[in-house]
Q: What sequence folds into this?
């Protein structure tokens, strides 16, 4: 059974969330120059505390009874258990996710399947996550994920022929002539906009209005 990048990543997140409810960690710091005891209070997931601070697993286990690396970090056995795939498939997906920056390699640990590589999810922005998952599947993300700014025809100045420049950034130009390849004019224009993180407010009207201004209609 073939599984999508989205399904496999959900397995990673589910495994990660199983033992990673946020904890309150209080750390005392002795200051010989002050009679007042100083304390540092951290509220975070155990995997984040272990990966990004000097707190060790034994100390976290002693104070919070959570934090064993083999439990709070994700390994191939966890992903296989949640997704129903083989260990080899799980390992391959973890490597793919790491290459895209979706997860971070923490180190190695021991599990029932032997010595395993341990990981944790590091991306929080859902749009970033979805964009990378689409890329892993070899699909172009929807415009709403990759575009950062919506534009209108009025923001483009005609510079001659079929070409227009973006008034907010004159280095951005588009060509609204009929493409030679077997694609629609609308998709041809939208593709040029996407390269600059732009999306038309109304794809159909955007192309029509600019072509009309350029006397191409």
A:
């Amino acid at each position: 059974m073939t599984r999508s990048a989205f399904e496999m990543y959900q397995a990673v997140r589910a495994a990660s969330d199983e033992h990673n409810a946020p904890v309150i960690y209080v750390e005392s710091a002795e200051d010989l120059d002050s009679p007042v005891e100083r304390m540092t209070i951290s509220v975070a997931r155990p995997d984040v505390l272990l990966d990004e601070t000097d707190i060790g697993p034994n100390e976290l286990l002693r104070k919070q009874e959570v934090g064993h690396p083999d439990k709070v970090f994700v390994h191939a056995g966890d992903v296989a258990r949640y997704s129903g795939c083989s260990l080899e498939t799980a390992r391959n997906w973890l490597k793919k996710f790491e290459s895209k920056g979706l997860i971070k390699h923490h180190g190695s640990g021991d599990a029932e399947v032997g010595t395993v590589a341990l990981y944790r999810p590091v991306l929080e922005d859902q749009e970033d996550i979805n964009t990378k998952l689409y890329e892993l599947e070899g699909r172009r993300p929807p415009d709403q994920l990759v575009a950062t700014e919506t534009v209108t025809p009025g923001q483009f100045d005609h510079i001659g022929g079929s070409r227009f420049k973006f008034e907010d950034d004159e280095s951005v130009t588009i060509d609204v002539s009929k493409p030679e390849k077997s694609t629609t004019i609308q998709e041809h224009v939208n593709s040029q906009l996407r390269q600059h993180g732009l999306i038309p407010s109304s794809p159909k009207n955007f192309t029509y209005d600019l072509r009309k201004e350029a006397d191409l209609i």
